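Researcher: We plan to redesign the surface later, but first we want a full-length starting point. Tokens attached.
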């Protein structure tokens, strides 16, 4: 199983998908590499590669500094800072967290207090308190106060920076209870965090129907020219995003039918993906598909798991 998938599902199937050495921030970033991928105008992606997996950081550059979206574990900071300096030695003015998981908030401590950290209000609540998600063998947090987001929002927020209108939108629980979609309106680029990882990759969470609704709304808002920065995959587009929404909708419908027929969680997992999707690029990912179907079952039966 490729590390791309392991990283993408780190908070859903951590104990299944990642080797022990890669669990809970123990990825060896000393062997990681990073590159800058120019997208449009003054927008780039800093892509950190570990083996064959990715961490994507959105970077909006202006004359007085950077706006960044996400940052992996703290251990990656030196590599990221060097890559950013190679792009141009300017301060980080804003850092957006797409959700609270540790591989997206690892830069908070480093850039605070000079950087304005922005996130959904539930991200701040999570970082302020000890978290015990089902996938973690040990508690996470609370983070030190300097790492807490300084600006939060409930539904949406717009940052006007470097000639860009950066809109942060919350659609409700999906991967977590605080996922943010970041829209760069002028460049026609969005960043999804862990609610979408591109073609052939599963994205999952605590509310699977919520995830489907969120991605459907995002697909309706963007267009065929939109560049989609995924959480841990390659750059993507609306066509691939719609494909994943279709897979989600079909899988949710199949699980609903199974529940109505009195099938157990285990029986529903044993069915596998709907027939239409059995040749999908990741359909042979045996450890992941049962967890994918289990999370749908848990969401529909109100036995959801904390993410």
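Model: Full-length starting sequence:
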């Amino acid at each position: 199983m490729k590390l791309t998938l392991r990283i993408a599902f780190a908070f859903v199937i951590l104990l299944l998908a990642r080797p022990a050495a890669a669990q809970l921030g123990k990825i060896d970033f000393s062997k990681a590499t990073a590159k800058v991928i120019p997208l449009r105008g003054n927008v780039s992606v800093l892509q950190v590669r570990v083996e064959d997996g990715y961490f994507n950081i959105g970077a909006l550059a202006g004359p007085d500094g950077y706006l960044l979206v996400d940052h992996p574990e703290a251990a990656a900071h030196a590599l990221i800072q060097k890559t950013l300096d190679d792009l141009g030695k300017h301060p980080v003015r804003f850092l957006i967290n797409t959700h609270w998981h540790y591989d997206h908030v690892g830069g908070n401590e480093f850039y605070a207090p000079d950087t304005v950290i922005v996130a959904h209000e539930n991200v701040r609540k999570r970082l302020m308190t000890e978290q015990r998600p089902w996938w973690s063998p040990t508690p996470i947090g609370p983070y030190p106060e300097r790492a807490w987001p300084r600006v939060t929002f409930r539904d949406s927020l717009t940052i006007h920076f470097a000639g860009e209108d950066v809109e942060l939108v919350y659609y409700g629980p999906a991967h977590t209870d605080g996922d943010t979609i970041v829209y760069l309106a002028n460049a026609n680029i969005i960043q999804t965090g862990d609610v979408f990882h591109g073609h052939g990759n599963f994205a999952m969470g605590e509310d699977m129907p919520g995830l489907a609704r969120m991605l459907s709304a995002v697909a309706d808002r963007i267009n065929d020219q939109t560049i989609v920065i995924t959480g841990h995959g390659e750059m993507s587009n609306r066509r691939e995003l719609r494909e994943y929404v279709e897979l989600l909708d079909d899988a949710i419908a199949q699980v609903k039918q199974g529940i109505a027929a009195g099938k157990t969680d285990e029986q529903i997992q044993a069915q596998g993906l709907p027939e239409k999707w059995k040749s999908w690029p990741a359909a042979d990912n045996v450890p992941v598909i049962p967890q994918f179907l289990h999370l749908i079952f848990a969401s529909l039966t109100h036995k959801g798991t904390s993410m």
